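agent: user wants the structure for Lutropin-choriogonadotropic hormone receptor from Orchesella cincta. delegating to structure tool.
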Amino acid sequence: MKSSEYYINIGYGIETKVVVALALLGNTAVLVVLLLAPGRISVQRFLMANLSWADLCMGLYLLMVATQDLVSLGSYFNYAIDWQLGWGCQIAGFLTVFASELSVFTLAVITGERWYALTRAIHLTKRLTLWGPAQLMAFGWFMAILLGALPLLGVSSYSKTSICLPMELNSGGAVAYLVFLLLFNGVAFLLVACAYWQMYRAVAGHGGGGAAPAASSADTAIAKKMALLVFTDFACWAPVAFFGLTAVGGMPLIGVTDSKILLVFFYPLNACCNPYLYAILTKQYRRDLLLLLSRDCQLAQRRVESRFVTFVSNGPLRHKQSTWQVFETNL
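agent: tool returned. relaying tokens verbatim.
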């Protein structure tokens, strides 16, 4: 291996670790709070839990690929056949397609829910219940599992590349499969972008032409946040779609080595950003986290009090009530 390739691999390994850590830690933190926080499961919490699970699966895929790269650094040819034809690559490939399509579908549903809530906010009888989004997500799970399983059933293949993506172009079915994935993601992105544009227009035009400076400032903040959400979706989808379409058209512009860079910098961008943009940086998440921590603290305090009462009632201090009074005062 050339020294330049060695340093490129070292840099790739460091960047991969950062991306894997962001995806795994961020989505795990979101899932823990959403599933364990007290209170009823709202539509928003339900959808965010689905999104976090999908992005966590993407993090697991990146972890598997990064681990294989680390093990085979400098001598991949010794491991290529066993890895690409083994179950490890098949599982990694299924995880990435399942996670990618479920994440895209869930983002579209979340955007639709936000659009519906904003445009129908004044109609109390038209509020969304959990039943509708649950049906949509059941369909999304079915579709994501089906698309992830097709290469395992002979439509395309996860074994053509070391990064276990379905890049086979030797049959009409494989090409149609790849084109469908690219078109599905592209249509979903356009729907999300259009919905956010309509939401911004609805919010910005709510106050009429004579908006106050405070309202104008709030509109600017909303516009920036919406632009950031759309930009991350575009930055994740556009490079993958562009190079994927050129490959389908018989004019591949990058090889496997360059596709690894694309894999690290763009492909998992949503998996890294979604938990922070949609959950961790929101007031609702911080509120749920505080409720969860306060509940755990109360449970811990009750256990301590219960053990102390048992100790006092059974031990030599059972007649010394002043000790219990001092303990209560210190609490």
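agent: one observation worth passing along. The chain has one domain: 3-284.
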